[in-house]
Amino acid sequence: MAGEAQQRQQAESKIISKALTDPQFKEALKTDPKGTLEKELKVKLPANLKVNVVEEAPDSVYLVLPNSGGGQELSEAELTRSTQMSDCWLTCTSCSEWTSFEPGETSGCG
């Protein structure tokens, strides 16, 4: 299960990075998220899988809760992994650049 989580995290990072640097890809992702993911990742996603893409605005933040596994309790490792916030990104309001930070850090930007 840990391998699947790592693969998903790597795929999400790849998709987000490309969407931040390629406006056409970003628009395709917002218009046809499932088809765009299948094409980019070269996979066929399950027919019953729903894919939603939401873009944060400067005045909003979305918190996505992980699937709890149908009522099963999460292990301590799963809880830790779910609550860690690494690779966090914010847009600096003074310079409008994307800034990466770790929990407890400030961006160091003007």
Description:
It is a single chain. This protein is mainly α and 110 residues long. It has one domain (2-84). Helix content is 42%, strand content 7%. It is built from four helices and two strands. The protein has helices spanning 2-21, 23-31, 33-41, 76-83, and strands at residues 88-91, 98-101. The chain has a two-stranded antiparallel sheet with strand order 1-2. Strand 1 (88-91) and strand 2 (98-101) form a beta hairpin. Mean pLDDT is 74; it is low at 82-91 and 100-105.
What would the keywords be for this entry?
single chain; mainly alpha; 4 helices; 42% helix
Short description:
The protein has 110 residues and is mainly α.
Write the layout of secondary structure elements.
Layout: H1 2-21, H2 23-31, H3 33-41, H4 76-83, E1 88-91, E2 98-101
Antiparallel strand pairs: 1-2
Helix pairs in contact: 1-2, 2-3
How would a crystallographer describe the biggest sheet? 2 strands, antiparallel
Estimate the strand proportion.
5-15%
The overall pLDDT average reads 74
Number of beta-strand segments: 2
Tally of alpha and pi helices: 4
The side-by-side strand order for the widest beta sheet comes to 1-2
Alpha carbon gyration radius: 16 Å
Low-confidence parts, pLDDT < 50 over ≥5 residues? 82-91, 100-105
* Proportion in helices: 40-55%
Please give the domain count: 1
Structural class: mainly alpha
State the separation between the terminal residues, measured CA to CA. 41 Å
Q: Which of globular, elongated, flat, extended, rod-shaped describes the shape?
A: globular
